């Protein structure tokens, strides 16, 4: 599959998820995790030095939102956060900050 097609497919999936989130069909924490996973895939696909521009052109949130969603996706995939036990994005991001502080102190 050509690289451009893969990126366009991922972008279409992200836009669909964003629309579903805005329509309140997905839990915001799970949406952030899924968007973070898609963003991590896009980051790998566009290559070193191109991701910031890609974010500006393709992501509807801020670069900080993208960074937080990617960190959250990594934490969930590493079983450090259970999205079913988090009631809000604020709580999920607070948990990430606490884990970062613990990692820094260790």
Topology record:
Blueprint: H1 3-22, H2 28-46, H3 51-58, H4 63-77, H5 89-105
Helix pairs in contact: 1-2, 2-4
Describe this structure in words.
By secondary structure, this protein is mostly helical. The protein has one domain. Helix content is 75%, strand content 0%. It has helices at 3-22, 28-46, 51-58, 63-77, 89-105. Helix 1 (3-22) packs antiparallel against helix 2 (28-46) and helix 2 (28-46) packs across helix 4 (63-77). The longest helix has 20 residues, at 3-22. The chain is globular and about 35 Å long. The mean pLDDT is 82.
What brief labels describe this structure?
single chain, 106 residues, mainly alpha, 75% helix
Q: Order of helices and strands, N to C?
A: HHHHH
The number of distinct β-strands equals: 0
- C-alpha-based Rg, rounded: 14 Å
Poorly predicted regions are: none
Number of domains: 1
Helix-residue proportion: over 70%
């Amino acid at each position: 599959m050509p690289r451009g097609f893969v990126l366009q497919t991922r972008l279409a999936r992200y836009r669909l998820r964003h629309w579903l989130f805005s329509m309140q069909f997905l839990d915001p924490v799970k949406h952030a995790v899924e968007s973070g996973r898609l963003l991590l895939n896009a980051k790998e696909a566009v290559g070193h030095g191109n991701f910031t521009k890609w974010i500006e052109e393709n992501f509807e949130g801020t670069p900080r939102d993208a960074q937080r969603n990617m960190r959250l996706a990594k934490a969930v995939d590493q079983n450090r956060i259970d999205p079913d036990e988090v009631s809000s994005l604020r709580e999920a991001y607070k948990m990430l900050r606490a884990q970062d502080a613990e990692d820094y102190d260790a």
